[in-house]
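NAD-dependent epimerase/dehydratase family protein
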Amino acid sequence: MGVRKAVVLGGYGLIGSACMRALADAGFHVTGIGRSESAAMKAAPSADWLIRDIPDLTVEEWRRLLADTDVVVNASGALQDGARDDLVAIHVNAVSRLVEAAAGLSLRIVQISAAGVSKEAPTAFFRTKARGDAIISAHATDWVILRPTLVLSHEAYGGTALLRAAAALPLTAPRILPEAQVQTVYVGDVATAVVATARGEVPSGLIADLTEPDAHAFPALVEAIRHWQGWPAPVFHPVVPAIFMSAMGRGADLLGHLGWRSPLRTTALTALRDGIRGDPGPWDKADGCPCRPLESTLSLLPATRQERLFARAYLVLPIAIATLALFWCLSGLITLFNPAQAVLVLTSRAVPAWLAELAVIGGAIADLFLGLAILWRRWTRPAALGMLCLSAAYLIGSVTFAPDLWADPLGPMVKVFPGMALAAMVWLLMEER
C-alpha cells in the first residue's frame, strides 16, 4: 500500500494547520488549500499548497484534485459575512460541490464543524455550518463530522486571541457575560481525532463533539488564562453592561465590511452569551481519545514572554490604528478648512506661492487619504508605511524651507516623531494569519 494522501481545506487556519502537521507526522502526504499564499508560506513553507479561494473551486476541479486522495479534511470556515467572507459560499456551496465531486470515489470526508450548530441557531454561522453538515450526512458515502468547542492552541486567533487579551488587561478583569458557560478543547486533541478518523479508526457516519467534560463560567475562564499567563491578580472587577457589549458588537460588524475579522462581532458575542457547550459522550463511545480538561491543556501551552507581549500588543494595536486614523484625518480636514493660513506659513519663508499651495493642498489630501486607508484592513500596512514616508517628507521639507520651526517653543516638528513611531509599530505588527 502506497502513501495515503490527505487534502486539508483551510490548511493555514488555527485547526487546519494543526491537522496538516498531525497528518504529515502520521505518514500522510498532505496538500493544503487556502486563498492566501503568504499565509500558507508562513504556516508551512515546505508543504504542498493549492492557492485558491475554496468557494471558487468547481466540481470538475474538485474531481481532478480528489482523484487520488484518501481523505479530505474540511477545516475551512468564516465567523460572519463581511468584505472577505460569504458564509453560504464557504459553508454550504463549497461543501455541496465537494460532496458532488466525491461521489463514486473511495475517500473519507472529515468535516470540522462546531459544537452547537443547528438549523434553528440564532447566528448565521451556526445555521450555515448546520446546512453544510446536513449535505455531507445526506449525500456523502464515507464521512465523519467533528464538532469542537472553544479551541485552545499555541497560536492565537479570533476568540482565543481575544481571550488572551482580555486576561492581560492591566489591573482589571472586567466581568463580561458572567452567565456564559464555556467548554474548551486542546487543538492537539482535535488533530489527534482527525488523524484517527483519517485512518478509519472511528466508524463512518459519526457526529461527535470534541470537548473537555466540564464547563467554565466565562469570567472564570478569563481568570484561568490570566493566571496561566503569569499576570498578578486584578485590582478591579468592573461589570460590563450587556448594552455596552451589544454596541461593541455592532461596531465590530461595521468594521467587518472593511475587512476586519474582529472576535467582538455579534456572532461571537451571541455564541458566548448562549454558551459554548458540547457532549463528549459520542466521541468517547466511538473509542476516540478523550479530550483533556482545561488545566491539562494549559499545562501543555507554556506562557512565555512572547505570549504576554502578544496579549498586550493585541490590546494596543487597534488603539494605535484608531489614533493614527483620527490624527491624519483631522490634520487633513483642518488644513483644507483653512488652507490660506497654512500657505502663509510657507510663503512667509520665501517659498513660491504655487509651490506652497501645491504642498499644502496636496499634503492635506494625502493626509486625509492615509487616515481613511489605514481603517481598511487590506490597506492598513501600506497606509502605515505611507504615513512614515510622508512624515519623513514633511521633516525634510521643514529643514529645507522652514528650519526655524524646529526652534518653535511648541515643538511642532519634534511631535512628528511619536506619530512616526506609532505608524512603524502598526506596520510591523500587522500581518495575515
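thats it. The mean pLDDT is 90. The CA atoms of residues 106 and 343 lie 74 Å apart. bye
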